[in-house]
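Kindly draft a sequence, keeping tokens residue-aligned:
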Amino acid sequence: MKNSLKTLAFAGALMFASSAQAETPKICVSTFDLTNPYWVNLVNGAKERAAEVGAELIVNDPANDNTKQISALENFITIGCKAIILAALDPASTEGVLTDAKNAGVKIIAQSMETPVADIWASADEFDMGNTIGIEAGKWIADKLGGEASVLVLNNDRIPQMIARKEGIVAGIKENAPNAKVVADQAAINTAEAMAVTESVLQANPNLDVIVSINDASALGALAAVESAGVDTSNMFIGGVDATPEAREKIESETAFRASVDNVPYENGIMDVDFAMKLINGEELEYRQIIPVKNYTGEE
């Protein structure tokens, strides 16, 4: 994939070079937290693409602090950024500063979180992410479990986007294993919460076959719980979303963690810079730009 991306990047560099401005355009990026591998990979993709197209990439890490992010956005305007790629911690609170940016001619790319006054919104579709891992779980149930299974879904219904992701999970399972039964649908957004929830659900449902989570952190907690309980995991399926390094390691080690959704952050970063350059150069783009995702099963 890296070779094909480099070829794509070179072609893109030639395309953008023909319309490059006299001064190097500044593209500014602010994500959630650069301790998160997803955002690190996205920024790395953006850095490589910016170098190819002759743009200067300026990166802010607000470390999950909304006040710091707003301050960074104000600074982006001051230093003359031509485009801002923003994963907003609190989208509503950005409206004022982003309106100021738009009035100053700055192009706004909302990354993942839909944001007021953005020129475009670039994101994987939440339902699609859930559906992708749900389909993988459903196929496992059909192929390994005779089409029937007891399923635990680990959710985060406090966030609207995560509700859509959960709905995608359930729809994907039912599409391929209509007789599977969701015996529990409970909130667990991190490893510790997922361990506690899974332990409780196992007590009530000792024949639990499948656990699907809206993220990898919770899926890893579920894995720790079933392994600690001494459950026979030879035919168990655990799936998550994000394809983090730790999740990949568990998948490759042939544990009960079978698959995770790769929301392609590196490629996403490349695409974000492409969008920024197109907007800077006066192109009009559709507001919604869907980023495709795929399952990671360790077989690639």
